[in-house]
Amino acid sequence: MIKGIGIDMVELSRIEKIIGNKSSFVKRVLTDDEHALFQKLPHKRQVEFLAGRFACKEAFSKAWGTGIGSIGLQDVEILKEENGAPKVTKSPHEGNVFVSISHTDTFAVAQIILEGVEIRD
Description:
- InterPro entries: 4-PPantetheinyl_Trfase_dom, 4-PPantetheinyl_Trfase_dom_sf, ACPS, Ppantetheine-prot_Trfase_dom.
- Transfers the 4'-phosphopantetheine moiety from coenzyme A to a Ser of acyl-carrier-protein.
- Keywords: Cytoplasm, Fatty acid biosynthesis, Fatty acid metabolism, Lipid biosynthesis, Lipid metabolism, Magnesium, Metal-binding, Transferase.
- It catalyses: apo-[ACP] + CoA = holo-[ACP] + adenosine 3',5'-bisphosphate + H(+).
- It is a single chain.
- Helices cover 39% and strands 30% of the residues.
- With 121 residues, it is of the alpha+beta class.
- It has one domain: CATH 3.90.470.20.
- The chain is globular and about 45 Å long.
- The mean pLDDT is 92.
């Protein structure tokens, strides 16, 4: 049973400026394991990666029904499967979490679907 759906879109140029001006933002958004992946990437991919992860965390908070604030950016972690697909590896949700991230030259967009266990009498 679907418990929540969230979507968010982020401008890459905004994230690129933030990376240049506020390196503390990167550590606020990314968990230690996400940051380790981020550091291995060339600059252009770092911008896409950070924008995608930020969009995922915003989308998760929308699917959760609270928005960022009740759920912190560090409460959700998106790493990757062996094939490179994004995977939510940490969150407050106890069911399945499905994630999709996409990029254009100017935007990153992410969608989250939260699936819960249906309890039948």
